[in-house]
Design a protein that fits this description.
Helices cover 39% and strands 25% of the residues. The protein is built from 14 helices and 15 strands. The longest helix has 20 residues. The chain is globular, with a radius of gyration of 20 Å.
């Protein structure tokens, strides 16, 4: 039995808690949230023993084996370091921080303390994307040439959220940056980004964009494009294609039903699932199951702290590229 403490009981924290309490090899020992009184009744309904507004109560609890960090991004790095020093294994939602230097500091402590850290890039655990990754690894399409990722949300988040999110590249497209490395099994060496405000001018007023296209160059010579939009009126749009010299691998949107109705008036199918909670239900379960399996078996986590760092570096390069209007090489971000 693995005893877990969850730090942060907002939307994503509650999602993880609801999944955790159904797993027979896991016990949710404690939940911490600085605004715990707002969710106390909800947590109590899950029969969780200890509820607190102080995250360090969880980190300092000797009965807890691992922590899930689901609090705001600005708290992640310090909580990671504290948990590592307390010899807790760590699952942390993305991104680790808004600064690659800060992320490196946290990863160094994790390394020094010898604990596991898994970053919450849940899309790696989606059956469709995982199948494509496996097929690429097995040489099904030969040498990869191009990658195309489409990722669009059904509506923008609240402006108050956008103000503190770090921007589209670090908040939204970072999932796609990780997916690009995961599927292509190659690091990104150059980024060229273009962004615009086409949906809501208020997003631009707080310094962000709502639409972007990014061109990636990989170390293996392949090239890829990622397109993001904050608003697709038909639902949550998640598609991916990898093309190589022996063929292509394509995954389309998941829908409530795969039935297509053909009639004299036209062809009708269900729209994609509305949002990520529906689209990635099983992926969220699988990522925690594999985190726990890594702890029990002493194996490597599927999505490491370095994977989180690499995605942040691509996001940083994308932001800089958009600002200067030129491609940015990842190596230039690493120069002292």
């Amino acid at each position: 039995m693995i005893n877990i403490g969850v730090i942060g009981a907002g939307r994503i924290g509650q999602l993880h808690i609801d999944n955790l309490v159904t797993m027979p090899t896991i016990k949710v020992k404690a939940v911490a949230d600085v605004y715990i009184d707002n969710v106390r009744e909800w947590v109590e309904q899950r029969n969780i023993q200890y509820i607190t507004n102080e995250p360090m109560d969880i980190i300092n609890n000797p009965e807890i084996d691992a922590v899930l960090i689901c609090s705001p991004t600005t708290t992640h790095s310090e909580l990671i370091k504290a948990a590592a020093r307390a010899k807790k294994h760590i699952f942390c939602e993305k991104p680790i921080s808004f600064s690659t230097d800060t992320t490196r500091e946290a990863l160094e402590v994790v390394k020094e303390e010898g604990v596991m850290l898994q970053v919450g890039f849940n899309r790696r655990f989606d059956t469709n994307f995982r199948t494509i990754q496996n097929q690429v690894a097995n040489g099904a399409i030969g040498s990869t040439h191009t990658l195309r990722i489409t990722s669009r949300d059904p509506q923008p988040p609240p402006i108050d959220y956008i103000k503190t999110s770090g921007g589209l590249f670090i908040d939204m497209m970072i999932h796609d940056f990780d997916m690009a490395r995961y599927v292509m099994q190659s690091n990104v060496v150059e980024v060229h980004a273009k962004g615009a405000v086409l949906i809501d001018e208020k997003i631009g007023e707080v310094g962000d964009i709502d639409t972007a296209i990014v061109l990636l160059t990989f170390a293996n010579g392949s090239i890829g494009t990622i397109e993001n939009s904050r608003k697709a009126i038909y639902g949550y749009d998640q598609r991916l294609e990898v093309f190589g010299d022996k063929g292509a691998l394509v995954t389309e949107n998941n829908r409530p039903s795969n039935v297509t109705y053909f009639s004299e008036d036209g062809v009708i199918t269900d729209k994609p699932y509305h949002f990520f909670l529906e689209r990635y239900t099983q992926a969220y379960i699988s990522e925690i199951e594999q985190f726990v399996a890594a702890i029990v078996n002493g194996t490597e986590v599927v999505c490491s702290g370095n994977d989180g760092l690499q995605a942040e570096l691509i996001a940083e390069a994308a932001k800089k590229s958009m600002e200067i209007g030129q491609p940015v090489r990842i190596a230039s971000l690493l120069e002292v």
